[in-house]
Write a structure and sequence with these properties.
This protein is an alpha+beta fold. It is built from 8 helices and 8 strands. The longest helix has 18 residues.
């Protein structure tokens, strides 16, 4: 399986709470009622940037792009990424509801869980690092140094502070997958990986920076494989919208995939025309 991740932001004139409402309620409702989406995305997780976080609390700064949110989609394989975009239900249902800015950071990734506390599933406060690799390193060398760094982090940080640590490693992707979609300007392949670290609170996130011994040790370790230029942090709350892969946490089947459901009957009616004379000529 693979992760298709993207960072996004609102339009300048849109208040953040309005943007989060559109994304968290209207966008999710559209996804749950779009058959190709529910067939392709096996797990969908939203991340909402937390207000009040500044660079003095972080190992790497926030992005100058001022990202408001990050989405994480789990797919079965490379081919599954483009399936919703090739079907008519996605462009007809999802794309007309354009509520954000045109800018995105988009990556296709594999992942490794380096640590997870017993009984932990997901949700809560999460530090996310979008990492650029040092130019002299191959992706294989970068990943090897990153794994070693993860082990050092778990040894350096006080036990119990980190709840879970995941490294998401680069997978090559043809940007043409997103041609004609909202994501085609996503600067695909710019980052070498995404690091996900779960905490109990924002104060716990800040301890990585505010404890000089922890900060100095982590910075020295990151410096062996990370290029600081355009590497950035996000501090978010994680919301697992649905999950069809994690034992013990499997979501109910989407009603739109049941041909006998009301949702499927509505979907069969289509999403254009609306019985307006002259619609097709516009």
């Amino acid at each position: 399986m693979l992760k298709f991740m993207l960072a996004a932001r609102r339009r300048p004139e849109t208040p953040q709470q309005r943007y989060f409402y559109e994304w968290g309620i209207i966008h999710v409702s559209l996804m749950l009622l779009t058959p190709s989406v529910m067939d392709s995305f096996r797990r969908y997780v939203q991340h909402y940037s937390i207000s009040g976080v500044d660079n003095d609390m972080l190992i790497y700064p926030l992005s100058e792009m001022a990202w408001d949110n990050m989405a994480d989609h789990l797919v079965d394989n490379y081919e599954a990424i483009g399936l919703p975009f090739m079907d008519q239900d996605y462009p007809n249902r999802m794309q007309p509801h354009k509520f954000g800015d045109d800018a995105f950071a988009v990556e296709l990734l594999n992942w490794e869980t380096l640590y997870e506390e017993e009984g932990f599933y997901g949700g809560g406060v999460k530090l996310i690092h979008w990492l650029r690799k040092r130019p002299e390193l191959s992706h294989e060398e970068f990943n090897a140094k990153w794994r070693e760094h993860g082990k050092k982090m778990l040894e350096t940080v006080p036990k119990g502070l980190i709840r879970k640590l995941v490294i998401d490693t680069h997978v090559p992707m043809d940007p043409a997958v997103f041609k004609g979609t909202l994501f085609e300007f996503g600067n695909v392949g710019h980052y070498a990986g995404v690091e996900e670290i779960w905490f109990r609170s924002v104060d716990d996130v800040a301890r990585l920076r505010r404890d000089p011994a922890i900060y100095d040790a982590l910075r020295a370790s990151y410096a062996t494989f990370v290029d600081d230029d355009d590497t950035f942090s996000m501090v978010t709350t994680e919301r697992i919208v649905y999950d069809y892969v994690t034992p013990g946490h499997i979501s109910p089947r989407a009603a739109v995939l049941d041909p006998n459901s009301l949702e499927a009957a509505v979907d069969r009616q289509g999403y254009s025309g609306w019985n307006i004379p002259g619609w097709d000529e516009r």
